Amino acid sequence: MKTHALTDRGLERPENQDYLFTSELSVGNLPNLFIVADGMGGHAGGKLASTTATKAFVKSVQKSTSEDVNEILTCAVTKANEEVIKKAKKSELEGMGTTLVAATVIEDKLYVANVGDSRLYVITAGEIKQVTKDHSLVEEMVRLGELEPSKARTHEKKNVITRAIGVADEVKADIFKVSLKEEQTILLCTDGLTNMVTDDDIRKIVVTGRDVIEKAENLIGEANKNGGKDNITVVLIEP
User: Fold this and answer.
1) pLDDT tens figures, 55-77
2) Which of 165, 179, 156, 170 is nearest to 135 (CA)?
3) Are 236 and 212 in contact (CB under 8 A)?
4) How far is C-alpha 106 from the geometric centre of its chain's CA atoms?
5) pTM assigned to the model
6) What total number of domains does the chain contain?
7) Which residue pairs from 150-154 have beta carbons closer than 8 angstroms and sit at least 24 positions apart in sequence?
8) Among candidates 150, 147, 53, which has minimal Cα distance to 98?
9) Could you give the CA distance from residue 100 to residue 113 in angstroms, rounded to a whole number?
10) Which one-letter DSSP state was computed for residue 40?
11) Which end of the chain, N or C, is less packed with Cβ atoms under 10 Å?
C-alpha cells in the first residue's frame, strides 16, 4: 500500500480548519485507517470541531472490540458527534461542526463512512467515481432534479451543509462497501479541492502523476492555481 496526505490553507482563508489522520498500520481491529475532516463554525470553532471529531473517531476505533467493520465505523461517528457537542458546550462555541469521511481497506474491499460534503473517489485511468454522496443543499437540489449537476460546483449555496458532525444530538453516517480492482487509486478530500478542480481534472492529475507524493502536490497546486478559496486536504491511497 502506498499513501500520501497533504493539507494546505489555500490562498484566502486565514487558517487551516481541515484536519486529517492516516495510518497504514492497524488501528484497533481495522488494518488501516484514513480520515479527512473539514471544520465549520467560525475562526475558533471549525478547527476545534475537525480536530476533536477526528481524534474521537480514532479513539473509538482503537477501543472497539467489534469485528464488524460497519459497526466500528458507525460507533466511531456517534462518538465523534458526542465529543464535538461536548467540546462546543465547554468552549462556548455552540454551532460548530465538521464534515468527516473515513475509510479502511481490507483485502480487496474498501469501507467508507461519510457525514457532510467531504468526498471519497475511486479513480482509474478511464474513470473517476464519487463513492460518497454529499450531504448538502445543492446535492439535494440535484437529486430532486431542481439543479443541473454541471451547475452545482458554482452554485451560490454550494457550501450549505444538510448533515454534519456536532450540530445535532444524533447524526447518521452513510456507510459504503466497494470492491476494489487493480490499478485503482482512492482519494479522500475536502471541498477545497472539489470546488476548485473538476472531477475530470482530478482524474487526469492522479493518472499522470509519477507517484502518490507528486499526485497529492499537483492536486493542491491545481486548487490554488484556480483560486484556492478554501482549505484543501487530500489523502491518496494506492492499495
Assistant:
1) 999 999 999 999 999 999 999 99
2) 165
3) yes
4) 19
5) 0.95
6) 1
7) 153/194, 153/195, 153/198
8) 53
9) 8
10) E
11) N
